[in-house]
Amino acid sequence: MRNQWTVTGTMWVAAMLLATWTGRTCRAEASLQMTSSVSEPGIARLRPEARGDLYLARGEYEQAIEAYQQAPRTAEVWDKMGVAWHHLDAIGEARHDYQRALLIRPNYPEAINNLGATYFAQRNYKKAIRLYEHALRLMT
């Protein structure tokens, strides 16, 4: 049996969207082998948030941000946009987007955790730990 498997076309898109939704994009990306059958015209037909999720999973962070900017601004979209900025090491922009997500949904544990990661990146460990602990309390 093979350790890696190849998924093509729509199945690959669905797998990546599921991986993004469950927060396992890094592991999913490592375990899936991309094929050339995922075409750009097919991606263009996706809803903006789904398109952003796909770009985020593929590590195409600028394209993900552009797609999320076309989506309705929900807490989840702001959080995902923050994740894309975070991957680009644009910590200020990421923090701003996480805070916008929290304005919409104040007890959103993923956004609180991600906001903590921005403080961690800037070596403000006390603030980061407080936010991580708050996110954990909300998740349990």
What does the model show?
This protein is mostly helical and 140 residues long. The chain is globular and about 45 Å long. Strands 1-2 form a two-stranded parallel ribbon. The protein has helices spanning 9-21, 25-31, 40-44, 48-58, 61-69, 75-87, 91-104, 109-121, 125-139; strands at 5-6, 32-33.
Write the SSE topology.
Layout: E1 5-6, H1 9-21, H2 25-31, E2 32-33, H3 40-44, H4 48-58, H5 61-69, H6 75-87, H7 91-104, H8 109-121, H9 125-139
Parallel strand pairs: 1-2
> What is the radius of gyration?
16 Å
Count of runs of 4 or more consecutive helical residues: 9
* Main β sheet profile: 2 strands, parallel
Given helix and strand content, the structural type is: mainly alpha
Which properties best describe this structure?
140 residues, mainly alpha, two-stranded parallel ribbon, 2 strands, 71% helix, globular
In brief:
This protein is mainly α. The chain has helices spanning 9-21, 25-31, 40-44, 48-58, 61-69, 75-87, 91-104, 109-121, 125-139, and strands at 5-6, 32-33.
